[in-house]
Amino acid sequence: MAGLPDDTIADILLRLPAESVLCAGAVCKAWRSFTTDPSFLAAHARLQQAQVVMYSYLDEGPYELALDVVPFSGDDDEAARRRLIRYPRTTRTRFLLLASCNGVLLFRKSHGSFLSFLLCNPVTRQWAELPRVGRFGEAEYQYAFYSHQPSGEYRLLLRRGLSWLILSTGAAEPRRVDMPPGTSITNSLVTAPPVALGGRLHWPPRVVAGAGMTTTTSEMMVFDTVSETFHRMAGPPTATADMVKLFEMEGRLAAADFGEEEHVDLWFLDDYDVGRWERRHRVATAWEPDGVSRGPPQEAGDLVCVAAAGDGEGNVMLGSHLWLAVYNLRTKTARTVDSVVEAENDVLVSRHVFSASLVRHPSFAARSTADLGLTFSWS
Fold it and tell me: The dihedral of CA 146, 194, 84, 13: what is its sign?
């Protein structure tokens, strides 16, 4: 290794998993310099494949809930499944994973009548807390968690009563924002996080009221994360738009329609500017029969525990812990992820995807979770 050029060594390190990069940085000063350079960290984050997050229920010790990730390829090799974090489920203080963005997880913490939001990078083990919003006796909905590229801040868009607020890692207080009249988002972070693409967030579509009988028209709400403004765009022309999950696939917006029990239709946005969608694939399903605790999704609320995500190798992961399959767009073949659908594994598919990042944010702190009143473990 000592005889290799620096560029070659950096290129090799760039292709390692995040945990391995952290270990490599301890080898020598030169490698430490490579693995802490901001341009290296940004390039490494771009190369990381996103993975589907699973809730794993544990019995040992005080920890009862863990977050694991599974690659979109659905590799059943035990080494491919990796633990991010684990934490207790208590009746007094509740933690809910709301969203995932650029390697950062957003948790909502509720304790009595108080509400707070915590950000965590489980790879660098850094934490941040968003500005407090106080008591939450009035109606409150969280709609978007995103990275604001001009400032480098992580921001949370929420509505409290009739007011819209933005909580930011770079601000001490919530900031009020004006929303255009008629702005309406049907999906909050609890039900369906928006999908990021090209600096914009896209919420799942809904059928337009009064559409003709011969064709179906749906529309999606879009939020520009730079200008922080809303607009609408055309959604896939499916009659079951409220059963659609959006995901990003090789730089394009894609949609999985779970409206039919026998199959899942895959739509792709071929022309973003004109909103032209095309149905490219139909994947046969094999849900568990009626009589189990959870059956195939019957309404939009059931999609909370259903995955739809793709990678750069043509793999699309679809389904839940009752039927989870990987469909390959190139070979047009599907296979079941047995390590998830077997009942003894005691896991639940989440709606979140995670992509590891070693980028350290100035507003985050590498501190003990006890400082935030938490009892978390990384194993």
Answer: negative
Model confidence band, residue 374 (pLDDT cutoffs 50, 70, 90) = low
> What gap in Å lies between CA 218 and CA 133, rounded to an integer?
35
> Any idea which residue has 């079941």 for tokens?
336
DSSP string covering 23-42: HHTTT-HHHHHHHH-HHHHH
**117 close to 156: Cβ distance less than 8 angstroms:** yes
The full set of domain ranges for the chain reads 1-47, 48-372
Question: Going by CATH, does the domain composed of 48-372 fall within 2.120.10.80?
Answer: yes
Structure tokens at 24: 């490599």
Name the pairing type of β-strands 200-202 and 218-224.
antiparallel
The pLDDT tens digits of the residues spanning 119-161 come to 999 988 888 888 887 665 545 788 899 999 888 899 999 888 7
Q: Does the pTM exceed 0.90?
A: no
Burial of 54 (0-12, 13-18, 19+ CB in 10 A): buried
| DSSP 3-state of 372 | helix
The CATH number of domain 1-47 is 1.10.3470: no
Residues present in the chain in total? 379
Which residue type sits at 136? Answer: F
Of 96, 254, 227, 102, which is closest to residue 169 (Cα–Cα)? 102
